[in-house]
Specification:
- The chain is of the alpha+beta class and 235 residues long.
- It has one domain: tt1808, chain A.
- The strands form three sheets. A six-stranded mixed beta sheet has the order 1-3-5-6-7-8.
- A hairpin with a 2-residue loop joins strand 11 and strand 12.
- The N and C termini lie far apart (48 Å).
- Pfam families: Uma2 (PF05685).
- InterPro entries: Nuclease_put_TT1808 (IPR012296), Restrct_endonuc-II-like (IPR011335), Uma2 (IPR008538).
- It comes from Euzebya pacifica.
- This is Putative restriction endonuclease domain-containing protein.
Amino acid sequence: MTPPTTLDDVATYVDEHGVEMLRPETEPVPEHALHAEIVDLLYAGLRAHFADRTDVAVHERLAWFPEQSNTRIRLDPDVMVVIGRPQLMRKSFKAWAEDGAVPSVLVEVVSEEDTDRNYRERLGRAHRYGVPEVVLIHPFAPGGCYVQHLLAEEEGYRTRATSTSPDAPVEVPTLGIRLAGGDRLVAEDEYGPWQDTASLAEHVRRQTEEARRQGERADRLAEALRAAGIDPDSI
């Protein structure tokens, strides 16, 4: 086949062959350290929170492709939680390879550079592809951190609850967590506040390492059974 040479040829080739175009929703801009810290905290906290669940996937800054027929459409949420899918090492989240799954909740941390128009567009895309809940964290809002919990309705999202004070947190029942605004973001679950990113990240690292070791043990056992003439799938 002759390689595509024009932009139109490339677009046609991508659509016909299902090529994954890793093109972000917007031009990347440098992240403020606070933005990155909050994203990391929420990701690590949610990973630890759902550690005992085999049917919940939590991803940080992972490209989500909602349409197989048009892989040029891509969403890049800060954190997404997909209930009903296992936690795997994914390069991207392709809906057609995940039984049509849609993120149950998107968590977005609004950066200093974001405009209202940017987020209206991003929320519009999330709503179009069936995301039922969105949590917005505004760490740079006047007066301190501002938290919004949005629920999807027919015409778009409505604000279910907000928080600007640690004394009045937003409950997110789908996730089983509470988020509060104020001088800083406060995130907690039934075990208490998520104090720091480092300890949560270490907890997730230990869980990942233990899962890897268990997988290796299972592989060795299966190999030993095959060597003994036993089909491990028959046990």
